[in-house]
Give the backbone structure.
Amino acid sequence: MTETMQTIHVVDDDEAMRDSMSWLLEGEGYSVACFDSAEAFLQAFRNDMRGCLVLDVRMPEMSGLELHEKLDSLGSQLPVIFVTGHGDVPMAVGALQRGACDFIEKPFHNEDLLSRIVRALELDNQIHARRQRDGAISHRLEQLTQREREVMDLVVAGKLNKQIADDLNISMKTVEAHRARVMEKMGVRTLAELVKVVLTVN
């Protein structure tokens, strides 16, 4: 599967602003996609999009804040940088509290926007790495038999082999065999590693 490229998605109803941002960002070597409305971006949206979203707060029809809420409901993890006018700052702060990455006030210095984009792309890399790790763990969990899963859950809960044997009405030797297969399938060597892996996706 090919790696999805990081793209700066610019959503702004002001054509001059879109052109200006596109010129600036492409000049820095970034891949840029511009949209003239929240609705246009929603039509193109996919949950595996990489990069970040530079989003104007005030737009006709659907506002940037409404788009952010909609993307949140769709499970989007794309970092969002809001572009605000002076009077929109309280709204932007509220958006930060609801999970936006950053906001920048108009008029802004190009260097200021670029530094925020660098941070947003770093966050996107972290989110992408976490998704890949969680996907790999989930795949390993799916390889466990039902009995191995039961043993693993009791091990992670802190139960000793004898207690697990009693709980599941199986022999200690069987518990030990299941534990060994769980450790092998989950790709861990110690109980601490197993607990950490399981807690990561729970």
User: Anything to note?
Assistant: The chain is about 60% helix and 15% strand. Strands lie at 6-11, 31-35, 50-56, 80-84, 102-105. The first strand starts at residue 6 and ends at 11.
